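Most newcomers find our protein records easier to grasp once they have seen one. To make this concrete, we reproduce a full record directly below:

===
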Amino acid sequence: MTIGLGHYLALGAALFLIGLFGALTRRNVIGILMSIELMFNAANINLAAFNRYLHPGGVAGMTVALFVITVAAAEVVVGLALVLAIYRNAG
């Protein structure tokens, strides 16, 4: 049995739905940020899978995935800075 495109898309969809459920049900900021990161990773899996199966020699999907990882890292930094600012003002 070989792993095909459908398997990767199912994995990406499952991860995205878990992240969406977590983002909609969490009350704390850290949990919401972790859920958003999970959704970003699901999108990266789909980008890498489509790149592999549609353009095996191309790097466009990998480049977009790298850009998404960079944006996710910046989002974490901004989110944690907001949490620290709120904690310092509330304390």
Remarks:
- The chain has a mean pLDDT of 87.
